[in-house]
Write a structure and sequence with these properties.
With about 200 residues, this protein is mainly α. Strand 1 and strand 2 form a beta hairpin. Helix 2 crosses helix 4 and helix 4 packs parallel to helix 6. It has one domain. The chain has a two-stranded antiparallel ribbon. It is about 65% helix and about 5% strand. It is elongated, with a radius of gyration of 20 Å.
């Protein structure tokens, strides 16, 4: 239990045997039981799929790419950035210094968004009630606008909903898919579950 009025939840741990789910006091106050159950199922899906480990590996790779690009750009600066003909190569500098770290970050954020969709689907399977998670996500997004969590933004990928910026203008750099996209995917799952029963 995290003692804060902001409503959120997260899972952490390298594998199912060394993991924990945390919920805030705020989420316990605002969510009805079936919606809280869906949120906890979402977090358990992250644990089951080892998403924290996946995110750590993705962040490490992105950091390594950024570091190597920076070292390469320093090498070009100090060697004069010369190409084979002896002239400077500004395109090479631009690609290594700017585009490589951006590409690494986009890939890392894409993995994070994919894992969120997978955890939503896992929660829907565990509870058999995708609509409960859809309602919880709507409620949590509204709550995040009214009372954003006061924490380090590096903590954002762990949380069930992005509490820092609401809808991102640059969706490529967001750790979470839009709440609307997640709800649509959950409602599709609900139709599939209903259809399979008949």
């Amino acid at each position: 239990m995290v003692p804060t009025r902001a409503a959120n939840a997260f899972a952490t741990g390298r594998d199912p045997k060394h993991a924990a789910v945390a919920v805030t006091e705020g989420i316990m106050r605002i969510l009805p039981e079936e919606e809280l159950e869906a949120v906890i199922a979402h977090e358990l899906s992250h644990i089951y799929n080892r998403d924290t480990l996946t995110q750590a590996v993705a962040a490490t790779i992105a950091g390594a790419i950024s570091f190597l690009a920076q070292m390469a750009s320093y090498g070009m600066w100090f060697s004069g950035g010369r190409d084979r003909e002896g002239g400077t190569n500004p395109i090479g500098l631009l690609l290594t210094f700017i585009l490589a770290p951006i590409a690494a970050t986009v890939i890392q954020m894409g993995i994070s968004r994919t894992r969120e969709f997978a955890a939503d689907a896992g929660a829907a399977k565990l509870t058999g009630n995708p609509r409960a998670l859809a309602r919880a996500l709507q409620r949590l997004e509204s709550g995040a606008r009214e009372m954003p969590i006061e924490a380090n933004p590096a903590f954002e990928p762990l949380l069930i909903i992005n509490p820092f910026s609401g809808e991102s203008i640059f969706q490529l750099f967001s750790t979470h898919p839009s709440t609307e996209a997640r709800i649509q995917a959950l409602l599709k799952l609900e139709q599939q579950i209903s259809g399979s029963r008949y």
